Amino acid sequence: MTVLLRLSLIFLFLSGCSGQSSTPIMSWRHADDGAYAANISADASLAVVSSVTGGISVWDLEHNKKLYTWQHQGEGNNLVANVHIAFDNSYVVTSDREAFALWNVTSGDPEGFWRIDESSIRDVAVSNQGRGVLVARGNGKVMFFEPKTGRRLEFLGHQEKVNSVDISPNGFYALTGGNDYTAYLWDTRSGQVIHSFTHSSRVTKVALDDNGRYGFTADSKRDARIWDLVTGEEVSNLHYLARQKIFSTAVFSQDGQYLLTGSPAKRLNLWRVSDGKELQEWQVSPREGSRPQTAVVYGVGFAKNNQVVSESSSGLAEFWQINE
Asked: Domain 37-250 is of which CATH architecture?
């Protein structure tokens, strides 16, 4: 009986891991010395990677071609820790802890550089055509800024440090999450809260569905939830066995059926939106010579041919196959 039980447990363990893979279809090096930050465009055609000594590089993911190399603050080591590509691939916003910059993807030129003196920058996001930029700060304030008009709006809903922000493609809606255990969906035109989403610990990651259907909020302990943005009701809570799971990036598929997430512990996971079930897991490659052998997944995207793509701190872009 003991032997049979042991064999059964081994079989169940192996079956549970059948959806895991650590062998990518393709792997391209985008940062020789590792990356500080990265983002992948909504259509997975572009990646922007911030590396230690290589500045900020913009990559065509369909041909693995470097399009531009940008320097956020001139000479010296690059300290850009936040990168976001607009939904329409028109603009990119980058930031270190003290300043943010807006870049035109068509021309490759910078269109503005702004310094924040009051408090450190925690996260940034940009809408289509660079119309609006969100800046999360350590003092609990979120600034919405329109570079072309100079209009500024400060959202004061959070009581503590803001950790993560996202913006709708049209720039009208923001999702923000902070150390006050709360995420807010709010209108950037008025600053009015549309929905608030409460967690049992600090909210560490938020993401908006680009089609306005869903929002994702995750905290520092166990809860990672998908919300209906129209009703404000919970759609699902992601199911995982770990006592704690931190998310470093998240993106919804264009059809709204799936959520793709990355973690600080090499993992890339595919989830079903309707019930929060994990469908597949991959492990990105660690940086060579790193101790421990791990990597932070900074950017993820749904690519062509039923594939997903990741950019991580190892400096690699890796493509993975989704099981049929």
From this structure: 7 Propeller (2.130)
